[in-house]
Design a protein that fits this description.
Length: about 70
């Protein structure tokens, strides 16, 4: 069940991604980071097979570096 929810959330984030190019300045950049952060959390949830009650997904320094790099590439 959790995998279906993470897949759905991933699709929703992807469908909103084109909006980042329509928004000017800081707002567009903030939305890029929100999308990348959401995708990274979904990756973390999938990594623990949806067991978020025993293994809370957390973003660490390497995650932030990856998100920043992906934000710049959007």
């Amino acid at each position: 069940m959790m995998r279906a929810q993470t897949d759905r959330a991933r699709q929703l984030l992807a469908s909103g991604a084109p909006l980042v190019h329509a928004l000017p300045g800081r707002l567009g950049w903030e939305l890029r980071l929100v999308i990348q952060g959401g995708l990274r959390i979904l990756d973390r949830i999938d990594r623990v097979h949806g067991d978020v009650f025993n293994r809370r997904p957390q973003l660490r320094a390497p995650d932030w570096l990856m998100m920043t790099a992906r934000t710049l590439a959007m």
